[in-house]
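Margin note: ligand = fe (iii) ion.
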Amino acid sequence: MKKNDAINAVEPCLTKPRFEHTLRVAETAVKLAEVHHVSSEKAELASIFHDYCKYRSLDEMRKIIETSYLPNDLLLYHHELWHGPVASIKIEEEFGITDDEIKSAIYYHTTGRANMSDLELIVFIADYIEPGRSFPGLEEVRNMAKHDLIRTAWMISRNTINYLMEKQNGIYPDTFHAYNDLTRLLHGGSKFEK
Ligand code: DGI
Ligand code: FE
Ligand code: FE
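Resulting structure:
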């Protein structure tokens, strides 16, 4: 699917600020893809669709989770976690996007998971560091993204878990799996367990 067709498909489904966020994520992801030698076409398409289902009704998303291969345990957690997995299904159904790398970068953009591909890392990171975001500590994460995708994703995972715990929110298992896996990659298995 061409970039402009994707943008035109997504725009009517999003609010203006969310659409602008989407364009900034795509731009950020393309830059990261170039630096880290990942397909910038895939990074761009995955980013354009990453929040495609953000405003689907909860009933529609619930039904899709119940009747597709998506794991039902998503329903036990905050509905904020549903839009990525649901979008990975919808883009295939509606636009014939079957590329598993693109689909899983969209699927896991909110939580991450263990064993993330470079494309998954890039969309996960771009969503967090795009230039419209601003909060303490973000500059450090932005600078790291130019050099080290693993360390950057680890910082994001750590920040997200800290934030969720502070708010006394539930934490989806993949969010922890991402953090643990990235910690092992950074520090090695044995050290991690000490
Ligand atoms: O869709 P965006 O707003 O661009 O960003 P996103 O899809 O990364 O995340 C949406 C929210 O989901 C964000 O506030 C953090 C939250 N989140 C991430 N992991 C978890 C989570 N919320 C819960 N309850 N549990 C998680 O594991
Ligand atoms: Fe999102
Ligand atoms: Fe987003």
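Residues 151 and 186 are 7 Å apart (CA to CA).
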